[in-house]
Amino acid sequence: MESKRQQKFAGVIQEELAQIFQREGGAFLPNTLVTITRVRVSPDLSVAKVYLSFFNTTNTTLSINTVNAHNGEIRYKLGARIRHQARVVPELNFFVDDTNEYVEKMDHLFEKIAKEPRQKEEDGEDLS
């Protein structure tokens, strides 16, 4: 369970990183929309796990590797934005948030399951 302090600081980081990626992310990820889906902060506020979702890209592994390659630059820009709100800029660890892909996969499976009984009924098979 995260403390109120951790949640508040995570929200600040999420908001500021979203602005950084929106305004300056095109320099290292052209034509890719990056969404900060979640930020988790350690109890001492020294490490932040940032979960990213990429849109308009074919290779999310390449995208996350590019973000990790620019980690120092992103952290520097974050530090410039939160310098009055935090004593130390947290170490940033970026991860791919595959929640949307998982939801789409599950929806596809449920649609497939829902269609199977109807197809058997249409073929004239008795389900009992």
Detailed description of the structure:
With 128 residues, this protein is an alpha+beta fold. The protein is 52% helix and 19% strand. Strands 1-2-3 form a three-stranded mixed β-sheet, with helices on one face. The longest helix has 24 residues. The radius of gyration is 21 Å and the shape is elongated.
Overall number of domains: 2
Relevant CATH superfamily of the largest domain: K homology (KH) domain
Low-confidence stretches: none
Ends apart, CA distance between termini: 49 Å
Structural class of the secondary structure composition? alpha+beta
CATH architecture of the largest domain: 2-Layer Sandwich
| Count of discrete alpha- or pi-helical segments spanning 4 or more residues | 4
- The whole-angstrom Rg is 21 Å
Order of helices and strands: HEEHHEH
Biggest sheet record: 3 strands, mixed
Largest sheet strand order: 1-2-3
Which range best describes the helical content: under 10%, 10-25%, 25-40%, 40-55%, 55-70% or over 70%? 40-55%
Query: β content, as a range?
Result: 15-25%
Subunit organisation of the chains: single chain
| CATH fold node name of the largest domain | GMP Synthetase, Chain A, domain 3
- Rounded average pLDDT: 88
The CATH top-level class label of the largest domain: Alpha Beta
The best one-word shape is elongated
Number of strands: 3
